[in-house]
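sorry for the late reply, my laptop died twice this morning and i had to redo everyting from scratch. anyway the thing you sent over, i finally got around to it. pasting the sequence first so we're on the same page, its 251 residues, then the predicted structure underneath. double check i copied it right bc i was rushing
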Amino acid sequence: MNDDAVQERTREGNGFLSDAATRRWFGTAAIAAIGIVLGGYLLGDGLLRAKEAERSVTVRGLAERDVTANLATWTISYSSTSTDLASAQAKVRGDTEAIEQFFAGLGFPEDALQPTGANVSSYTNDGITNYTVRQRLSLRTDDIERAQRAVARQFDLVNRGVFLEEGSGMSYTFTRLNDIKPEMVAEATRDARAAAEQFAEDSGADVGAIKDATQGYFSIEGRDGDEGGWGVSDSPYKKVRVVTTVNFSLS
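ok and here's the structure:
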């Protein structure tokens, strides 16, 4: 083969290699371009979704309801102190009979009043031993009106010689919370949406669906601020309250 033929074939081979390299380069560039375009689309779409996700408002909704207690519990604690244990015991037995007669006179059934505890303690002073006998009875009833009448007349027990110790107070309880929970949660959610709509109106947006929500604790307190305690009569009239926190999407 002469030199001219060798040079010609060399040029053909170089041309072939050049064309193959060019094709590979264009293929790689095309794939890269597609990747950039697709990545840009996904990035833009992701940013749009993130922006939409940021458009939300978190508000609180309140629901309150006035209720009347359905359970009354009165723990009556009384005692007698004497240097003679038998005398102290006799005095407590007499007080127990007086208390039972008091509640029977008000129309309470016998099983409404139950003993809940008794104890005896003693101390010695100047060589003299004193005995204290303490008794506790508990009244439990769903007759709220009758319970209120009993509290109003509790001084009658004092007139009968019964010494009521500290802590002998009536307590009223509302035990039907589960009956009103669903309605109150719905009411609190509506209140939260109303607040969100007001916010959206001021900012030129529309309120969408609930993204997430948290239900607060239910609280039951005296409607008029009466919580019971020594010297204070608890109230059967209660206020139930719940606060929910709701996150609404905005559009």
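Confidence is low (pLDDT under 50) at residues 10-14, 37-52, 228-232.
thats about all i looked at so far, will dig more tmrw
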